[in-house]
Amino acid sequence: MRKVASILAGLLVAGAAIALAADVDVSGKWKVTSKSQRGERTFDATLAQSGEKLTVTTKDREGNDVKSEGTVKGAEITWTTKRQTPMGEMVITYKGKVDGKTMSGTTDFGMGTGEWKAEKAE
Fold this sequence. Notes:
Blueprint (H helix, E strand, L loop, with lengths): L1 H21 L5 E9 L2 E12 L2 E7 L5 E9 L2 E10 L2 E12 L2 E7 L4 E8 L2
């Protein structure tokens, strides 16, 4: 009987952890700060989440919308954005963890890496 109770207790804890992870919703406006070898840059991002699918909208230097795609799986967040530069297309991949109204992680610029963090603006 003790063995059954221990197994049930373990399943309840695991189920609660899965339910909490599934409740992560990053939709809304975020203030993102990205650090790289070239310095620090802060920008606004609007995130829209539908299940695990993520769409990130930012602005380029000319003020045009830039749409990026990614995923949210539990507390793990990833998205990839493409930017046009004088040297051609640059692909930037953001990976990190969501913690309530903040998130942070690493960036891969293809020719270097950096760090990023974000706070929910709403």
